[in-house]
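Q: Could you fold this chain for me?
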Amino acid sequence: HLPATIPAYVDRIAATYPTPSHTPAPAAEEYSSSRPTQPLPGFGSNNNNRMGINTQALAVKYSYFTASEIQAFHQQFAAVDKDGNDSIHQSDLSNISTKAGVSAAEVTDKLQQLHLTDAEGNASFEAFLKAVSKVREEKGVPKPKAQGEGAPKKIVLHGHLENTTHTINEDEKESFTQHINWVLTGDKDVGHRLPIDEKSMQVFAEAKDGLILAKLINDAVPNTIDERVLNAGRKLNAFQMTENNNVVVNSAKAIGCSVVNIGSQDIIEGREHLILGLIWQIIKIGLQAKIDIKVHPELFRLLESGETLEEFLKLPPEQILLRWFNYHLKKAGWNKTVKNFSGDVKDGDNYTVLLNQLAPGQCSRAPLQTADLFDRAEQVLQNADKLGCRKYLTAKTLVGGNPKLNFAFVANLFNTHPGLEKLTEAELAQLDEWLFSSEGDREARAFALWLNSLGVEPFVNNLFDDLQDGLVLLQAMDRVKPGIVEWKKVNKAPVGSKFKKVENTNYVVVLGKSLRFSLVGIQGSDITDGNKTLTLGLVWQLMREHVIQTLRSLSSAGVEITDADMIKWANETVKRGGKHSNMNSFKDSGLSTGVYFLDLLNGIKAGVVDYGLVTAGTDEDSAKLNAKYAISIARKLGATIFVLPEDIVEVKAKMILTFVGTLMAVDKHLAH
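A: Sure. Below is the predicted structure, expressed as C-alpha cells.
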C-alpha cells in the first residue's frame, strides 16, 4: 500500500471534526435529515423481526410491491418502531417514504385522505403500504413483474436524490451476509451481534457503526487495521461511528478496493447499494489473496507452452482461476473448457468433473446423469459439501449463472483444494530467482493504489502494463493539477497502435517537464514499453506533486511547500504535543521505531494516541506494532494513506514523505 490521496480525506474530515463557521450545511436533496444518524436499535441477533409479517401475502394484497421490497421496508419500519407495536408517527416516515420513491408529504396526505392514522397521527406498517400503493397507482407506476424460477431476486431502493433508484441483488446480499456470519463468529467485539439475518436487510443496519466492516477487512487482509484504534461498544454515537468508518474507507482503499464514491457518511446512512458493493470488494480481495505464487508455488504448473512466469502472473485472478479450472478439466479428459463464471458453469457439468478430479473418492460424476438442472445443481453442491466447500452458491444461483457468487465458489475451492503437484527442487530454484528479482513490487503496488484512489479509469492492476497508453497518467495529471491536460491533443481509448500510445506518453513527458519533474533521458516510448525504473520514477514525482499541490491549496498564501518545510512542521507539531522526538530527514534511521509518527499524531490531536500501547520499538516486531498503530490512527483522522508498517520500519524515504505530507494536510485542514 502507499502514500496519500489528500483531497479525498478532506471531505471526510469535515464530517468527523465539524467547524460550524466554515462547514456548509449539506444540500437538502442529499440528506433527508440534518440530525446525526444514530445506530438503529433492535438489530441484535435476538431482536430481529419483532413484528411477524407474511411478505408473500402482503405482496398479493398490495401488488405495487414485491415481497422483497416489503421485507426491506418492514426492516426500516421496525427500526423506527422502538416499542415494537406496529405503529410509528407519520412524521417519522420520511426516510422510508424516500426509499419507496415517494415524498413524505405525499404519504402523509394519503394517510389523512384514507383515514389510516389514529388520533395521535400514528400509522401501522400496512397503512404505510396502502398509502404508498395508492400514490403509486395515481402516478401510473407500473406494477412489478413476477420473478420466475431461477431468476435473480432484486430489491429496488430509491436513492436520496429525486428520481434515482438503486438495485441490489438479494441472492448476493444473502450470500455475503452468510460470509460475514462465517468469518466473524466468536469475534470479541461483534460476535454477540451474529448471526445476522440473511433474509432481511439487517446487514446494512449492522454495518453502520463500521465495526463489522473493519473486522471484515482484517479477515480479508490480516493486520490491515490495528483494531486498538476502533471505537467498540454496544452503542456508539455519530462521532464514534464516523471515526470507525474513516478507518474502514481509508483501509479499504489501502487493500485495493475502488471506493472513490463512498464516504463514512454513506455507511452511517445505510446506503444499501454502496455498502453491498464495498462488502463484495472486500470479500473478493480476501478470496483472491491466496491466488498468489508466493502462497501456492504450484501455480507454476499452470504455465502454458512458451509462456514466461512474469507473463502468467500479469493475469488477473479471474483468469488464473479459469486457467486452474481448465487445467483440471483437461487432466480429467473432459472435452469442455470454461471461459467465464456464468454461462459456462450454470449447467453444473463442468463443476461435476472438477470436483471429481479434485476428490475422486468423495465426489462422483453421478450428477451428469441427472436431467433436471436444479436437481443436478443441488447434487453438485452436495459433492462440494463433502469437501467443506458448500459456500456462496445455492442451486438457484448456480443455475442462474451469477458471476460473483460462482467466482467466490471457485476461489474458495482453489484456496482449500488446489490439487496441484508440488514443485521439484529445480522448479523451486527457478521460482525463487524470479521472486528475488521482483522485490520492487511493493512500491509499484503502492503507486497503483494511489492512482486508483484518484478515480482513474480503467482500474490499475499492473502499474507497468496499465500505463502504457498514457491515458491513466494523463487523468492523474489532470486530477493533480486540474486543467493541465488539453484533451483535444490526446488519443482516446481504445488506443490501438503503438504510435498513438507513444504520442500520448510523449505528451505525458512534456507535461511532466512543465511541472518541473526530473525526466532526463525519459521518452514516452519508455513508458509505452513498460520500463519499470523510469515508470516508477515518473509516477513517484507525480505523487509527490499531488502532496505539494494539496498543501499549497491549504496554505493561506498558496506558497510552495518544500521537503524542509514538511520536516520543520513535523518537528514543531511533535513539540506542540509535549513530546521531544525529532526528525532530521525522511531518511532518518531513528524513524524506524515508529514512535516519532505517534508523537506527530499526538501533536495533531491531543489524546488520539494511547501511550500505554506504545513501546520503544527497539526490535523489529515492536517497531512494526508501533507503525501499524500510527497508520490506523492516521486513517481514523481521515487520511488516505497507503504506507505499510514495513515502509516505516525500513525507513523508505518516499513513503515517509507522503505520510508526513498527508498528516500536514490533515493538520492544516483541522486548523481551519
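A (continued): The chain is about 50% helix and 0% strand.
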